[in-house]
Amino acid sequence: MKPPAISPCLGVSDTQAAVDFYEKLGFTALPAGNDPDDDLRILLFEGEFALMVYRDEHLRGWLPVLKDTPVGAFGMFYLAVDDFDSYVERIRPLVTVQKDVMEHQGQKLFYFTDPNGYVIAVTQKQTW
């Protein structure tokens, strides 16, 4: 698997709760290393790297410049899926909807937040 050029690592309040949430949405979680005290997890979507989640206290210890940064972020992440309509239908009862299905410049979008306040936009997979 080839990693993307930019790999998001989200600080979360409870790594296992974040993993459980994303697994309900069709992601697969992998440990990021061999250290049992390190709870960094790699999340795959449809077999491809999607993002990492890491307990906020560990992330702040790893990178002290983040020590006062709250969990959650200003901005959003986009998740491209093969079948927009069926994926949104499947996850709708599992998420907190922030903006229901809409169309923008010919692209369907669906926005939700995860349990840590991160905004995820679902979109139809496309080539650029």
Automatic annotation (TrEMBL):
This is VOC domain-containing protein. Pfam families: Glyoxalase. Residues 2-125 form the VOC domain. It comes from Streptomyces stramineus. PROSITE patterns: VOC. It comes from the Bacteria.
